[in-house]
Amino acid sequence: MPDDFLIGIDLGGTKIAAAAFGIDGKQRGKVVRLPTMARMQPAVTLTNMKRVVKQAKLSAGVAGAPKAVGMGSSGPLDQKNRVLHDRDSLPNLVGFNIGKFSLEEFGAPLYLENDAACFALGEAIHGAGKSKEIVLGVTLGTGFGCGLTIGSKIYTGATNNAGEVAYCRVGGSDFDHACSGHGVVRQYRRNVESRPGEGLTAKEVGDLAEQGDPAALRAWETYGRNVGTAIATVCCVVDPTTVVLGGSISQRLSLFQDPLMESARGILPTTSRESFRLELSKLGAAAGLTGAAEYARQQVSD
Fold it and tell me: Which of 24, 78, 97, 178 is the most buried (most CB within 10 A)?
């Protein structure tokens, strides 16, 4: 039917974003965003979710129930039962059956996937990884996200945990802590003597580095080496065609790209070292919900 449409949702700890998509996978209307309010009562978050979907439908000029809803969210996830379990980013929705909610509120089945996997799929279909056979998507923000697509489909592994590398070790910490925005701030705090750096954000450490602050520049250098180690370690296992980098911290790539590449090439096998390339996300903040919609489209099309 020409009026058939899909809804893609990116559910994060800070914001909820949604957009409508045609059955052909093309976005219809604009992306709508509202705060998640993850520390509030569940009803607050769920009300905002209903609002973004309603506004996305209005923007796209569609009405009624979508054919399906695709959602990318941080893990851990119970994908089979469509239940959320992220205590760090979504504490108010732990144990919540988001699949049942989708059927009751949107009149459509929900297809739930890891947000980093949705990022990778969005970029593989419509972004920087388009036409690439194996795409590794890495998001750098409040955490370290990792997703993999093969043949333009998400690879989930035997237990739906492929890409869950957050707690792998690097730099005396783990991927999630060392390679997140918090990791940059921690490195900066170690480098300063007179200023403890309390209350600083990664953005502010980036601003300081761009102004020539030595402690901030060293922080980004160490951060880059850690990220390079993390990405190259994953690449040694999956040997991707391309790596697509996204998330808020990727916007500061110029501050840490050189140490990242040096670190990565020191780990990669000789035959893949010179071909190793990073691509920045082309879809930006819309990558996750675009991939979520595509994931739902693939499920209802199969």
Answer: 178
